[in-house]
Amino acid sequence: MDLKDLFLNYQKHESQNVTFLGRVRSHRQGKAVSFLVLNDGTSLNDVQVVYKSEVEGFDKIKDARVSSIVEVYGEVIVTPRKPQPFEIQAKKLVLLDQAVEEYPLQKKEHSPEFLREIAHLRARTKTFQSIFRLRSSLAYAIHKFFQEQNYVYVNAPIITGNDAEGAGEAFVVTTREDGNYEEDFFGKKASLSVSGQLHGESYAQAFNKIYTFGPTFRAEDSNTSRHAAEFWMIEPEIAFIDLQKNLEIIESMVKFVINYVMENNLDELKFCEKNLEFGLIEKLTKVRDAKFQVCTYEEVINTLKIAVDEGHVFENNDIKFGTDLGSEHEKYICEVVYKGPTFIINYPKDIKAFYMKQNDDNKTVAASDLIVPGIGELVGGSQREDDFEKLIRRCKDMGVNIEELDWYNNLRKYGYYKSAGFGLGFERLVMYITGASNIRDVISFPRTPNNLLF
Amino acid sequence: MDLKDLFLNYQKHESQNVTFLGRVRSHRQGKAVSFLVLNDGTSLNDVQVVYKSEVEGFDKIKDARVSSIVEVYGEVIVTPRKPQPFEIQAKKLVLLDQAVEEYPLQKKEHSPEFLREIAHLRARTKTFQSIFRLRSSLAYAIHKFFQEQNYVYVNAPIITGNDAEGAGEAFVVTTREDGNYEEDFFGKKASLSVSGQLHGESYAQAFNKIYTFGPTFRAEDSNTSRHAAEFWMIEPEIAFIDLQKNLEIIESMVKFVINYVMENNLDELKFCEKNLEFGLIEKLTKVRDAKFQVCTYEEVINTLKIAVDEGHVFENNDIKFGTDLGSEHEKYICEVVYKGPTFIINYPKDIKAFYMKQNDDNKTVAASDLIVPGIGELVGGSQREDDFEKLIRRCKDMGVNIEELDWYNNLRKYGYYKSAGFGLGFERLVMYITGASNIRDVISFPRTPNNLLF
Questions:
Q1: Do the Cβ atoms of B454 and A407 come within 8 Å?
Q2: Does some domain include residue B112?
Q3: Which of A237, A240, A264 to mutate to test the interface with B (most CBs of B within 10 A)?
Q4: Number of Cβ pairs closer than 8 Å across A and B?
Q5: What stretches pass through the bilayer (chains A, B) (predicted)?
Q6: A115 touches chain B (CB under 8 A)
Q7: What pLDDT does B166 receive?
Q8: Does the pLDDT of residue A375 top 90, yes or no?
Q9: Which CATH number goes with the domain that contains A25?
Q10: Together in a domain, A40 and A177
Q11: How high is the pLDDT of residue B108?
């Protein structure tokens, strides 16, 4: 039986015999009784198995090393006065496979850096059990949120001939070593996608509501705790809606996924709270229950100016219309000023992408960033430019290759009435919800500059 | 309101006024009354809007072209004697955006080849509405099947330094044009993954039950209706189980996803049946309700030999132990002999991968292919070799780079007791369930040799 089921139903099995397999997490031998702590991966909880020298299989089991696989046959003893709710009094133990002595994950604490070097093993630790089970649940919660509302899941292409958005930061995909792309597999230069948004937008014109959820790539030479060369993005797009409705969808999605893991993964969240971020569950509860605030970029600038005038010191104190807000500014706004999740809307057009809808003031676009306490930007979204001429002008002003994107721009000619969407970096969400502070620790096998293990 | 909701609830809205937006699919003007057929993408069903010259907005709406966006305000008239269950008697019509005359998707029939060239628009046709909504539902059904059984969803890496499986067929990922990989982004040669299985296996040792679901790539120069350079795979892996249990999981997964779309997407399936594959729903019903058969490769060889002796002609008539079964053989076995889904197990080791568990007969491995009527192989799986020495010997025999894979092979040293899993090509599943005969028609933006549009 799975340990997950045993932990759910141990009371039903009180004084009964059960059978299960598990990996040895620790093994302590005493004079009278010995203790095996086992886990089978289905639950964050370990089970303690108590045995004496009379147990069947003693001769072999007494030498079981950490990480060995053991089959247990024994009685469930409910232990209301001990930290664990029950233990197993072994009747028979089979050492199914003995691990070598040099198993790299012994009981002692390991540094995150060391664990990254054994990424194929680190998911066996409780920290990574928690992180990667939460990652899995979050992925499912996202699918569930959109599927239950009739969104169509679109697999945007990973290999793209469309370099427009990735200018300079896209990996090339090739079968050659000489850069002769005309003779290459696709007969032209191919790159790894940096975003599925533009392809997704064309599908929103067909299905009304779509979302992508797939890997994206950036060949950016940044060695920070928040950048990876390979990461997953969720990019929903909804036809016939404006920026305001887009904010409502973002808000309900964020609350839905938080609520989902609070209902389904409380053990993992508690472990993360204890080991990764103090106050994690209270933080998530607040976000789930908050009414997200909305303010304009211009209001933010004014607020920040006042803060500077009153003596607050930012690393970048040069606050004016046009300033690209840094994480320090975003955190000040949502942590100090609004004390909760906040949408900043209507950014200056010059610091945002070509496809965002120009507002009537001729200087801002209908863009929104959702900023949250503790991490800053979590979701970026916008209403899209629906006017073909304006869109082309923005492409030209910003040096976007019009020929490459004619298929995208032309969507505006074929019947187009509003469209809006957003992008959520999945790893950023996982970091926010687990409290992990390094993106390398929420990706199974992370890829960063000069780092390609496994 | 969404047209999907309107179709579900039109009776509740009888004789009431409703408002919705839609794209013009056709527009027919008569002397007394005119007809707009609209769709908003949320439903496969079109709604017919009837209007007279007195309708508010007539002057503009009378010129609405195909693909324009229209806002409708009108009364729901239930029409039990007409093909459609209801129509809308318009009170007010607003032409929100007029499409150009040169819209490529006019009402006439288009060839699949032409539609592939306008992949950004083809999802607006009913055929591709059906295919891509089914694709989306199937993806969700797969997540649902595994998540509800406590599997952990693992995002195996896409960029890999691990060339072992893809020998010669992997795309290179680079930021250079000279093949100097030591100076490249990762400091070594990087490829696009051809399979997430090996990485997934290491996670099954941590979580017991995992599945991957992500894109994989093959730089194979085949221009067939069943090959694409970019496709999605589902690769579950379960620790502590053998081949037999693996077959049970495959069988229940296939039945679950078929049942899911039959319950949730019957409209789309009916459309596919009418337009893509005669008898589709009966085919799927039979698979859902069948008991999958199991036979050994050796039994298959004997059966095929007898068929040849009795005069059956295969393209490859040279049937002996060691023959790599072709699609023609697989179809004969499941369509003529077993008349239903059939697992073929215990293949000769020389035609299967290095990681499959060697059987005691020393000539076969614990592999299984699920073959189904109409398409042949749908799922391939195996129990993995758990003996470190045997695994290394197979690597050497088959020319697999042991150094590159030491992390994978070493899993056998760290406590390892049985593991099995399988691979399901997602596009093959979508083709099977929609009846689409070309893989290019079940991928939003397909990638094949010399073909990289969008």
A1: yes
A2: no
A3: A240
A4: 294
A5: none
A6: no
A7: 55
A8: no
A9: 2.40.50.140
A10: no
A11: 73
Query: Are B184 and B331 within one domain?
Result: yes
Query: What is the per-residue pLDDT across A320-338, written as a single tens digit (0 to 9) for each?
Result: 999 999 999 999 999 999 9
What CATH number corresponds to the domain at position B235?
Answer: 3.30.930.10
Contact B185/A69, CB-based, under 8 Å? no
Q: CB distance B417–A97 less than 8 Å? A: yes
Does A124 sit within 8 Å of B42, measured CB to CB? no
List pLDDT tens digits, range A107-163: 678 999 999 999 999 999 999 999 999 999 999 999 999 999 999 999 999 999 876
Determine the structural domain holding residue B81 and report its residue range. 3-97
For chain A, the domain total comes to 2
Residues of chain A in contact with residue B133, where contact means CB-CB under 8 angstroms, are 152, 207
Instruction: Specify whether A148 is located in the same domain as A68.
Output: no
Using CB atoms and an 8 Å cut-off, which of residues 366-405 of chain B contact chain A? 386
Same domain for B122 and B86, yes or no, is: no
Q: What is the pLDDT of residue A106?
A: 82
What is the overall mean pLDDT for chain B?
Answer: 95
Collapsing DSSP to helix, strand or coil, B270 comes out as helix
In this structure, what token pair is assigned to residue A62? 């007494």
Please judge whether B416 and A386 are an interchain contact, meaning their C-beta atoms are less than 8 angstroms apart.
no
